[in-house]
Amino acid sequence: MTYDVLVSQLTVNYDQSPALWDLNFGLSKGTLTGILGPNGAGKSTLLKALLGEIQAMSGRIQLSGPVAYVPQRSCIDWDFPITAIDVVMMGAYRKLGIFKWHTRAQKKRACELLEKLGMASYAERQISQLSGGQQQRLFIARALMQEADIFFLDEPFAGIDIATESLLVDLFKDLRDQGKTLLVVHHDLTTAPDYFDHLLLLNTRLIASGSVDEVFVQENLQKTYGQKEDFLERVLATSQRKSEGL
Ligand SMILES: Nc1ncnc2c1ncn2[C@@H]1O[C@H](COP(=O)(O)OP(=O)(O)OP(=O)(O)O)[C@@H](O)[C@H]1O
Ligand SMILES: [Mg+2]
User: Is the shortest distance between the CB of 230 and ligand 1 below 6 Å?
Assistant: First the structure.
């Protein structure tokens, strides 16, 4: 089995208390994986540790290629004076390093991404003058501009309307089908089985990881969220109805 992301015995501490404890998992190439877990479970910490943004206490992380990352929304400085199209083009610059020329093809791709995400008419607008959901779409477009093999997205659907969410899910599935590996933090249990092929259930420890069919069962969800049985039964029933298109 070839893994694009391989994690063994990963432990991360903040001020002595563990945020992640002894995680072991692998993500195969060409998979779309959701990370599920309650607030404070360590989902964002996991992505930052994989990126090397925060230092692990112990463990090993192997990434097979370049990574594009969309952080959780609250972490971005929205007052930075820059236009929408420039934000998207920054995805290409990262690849070009200090030489900030871009090719016509890159500019075309940036415009296509803006168009696809319904943002074409905002291309020249300052990002501080966009709505929250529009800003979020831009940062996703910027990540898609990067010619990465691996994509880490932290709650990409937060504050995004339902039509854009469905468009993004299709984009993510296309990338997966092109052999990219995506790891996406997600909160909505009712859509998770439909959006992803694999899941990581996290609550400081890794409760379960694997294909949706193996992982998305009541016992695992209860261990992850600690909710009452009847609540999780309702969630499972709703997600089943959604995946059957009812
Ligand atoms: N810089 C930090 N210093 C100290 N503790 C932190 C820091 N960042 C996060 N934590 C703590 O680590 C734990 C995991 O945080 P993390 O942000 O990874 O959670 P999360 O699963 O992404 O939650 P959410 O769903 O709310 O985004 C939390 O208890 C949080 O309070
Ligand atoms: Mg988070």
Answer: no
pLDDT, tens digit, 9 for 90 and up, residues 19-28: 999 999 999 9
* Residue for token pair 């020329």: 101
pLDDT of residue 99 exceeding 70, the answer is: no
Nearest residue to 225 via CA among 195, 194, 196, 201: 201
0.85 cut: is pTM over it? yes
Which atom of ligand 1 is nearest the CA belonging to 37?
A: 21
Amino acid at the residue 229: E
Residues in a beta bridge with 143: none
Instruction: Count CB-CB contacts under 10 A for residue 29.
Output: 17
- Ranges of beta strands (E only) in 15-159 are 17-28, 32-36, 58-63, 67-70, 150-154
Pull the structure tokens for residue 99: 């030489």
Domains and CATH numbers, the chain: 3-65+149-243 (3.40.50.300), 82-148 (no CATH)
Q: How far is the CA of 56 from the centre of ligand 1 (A)?
A: 14
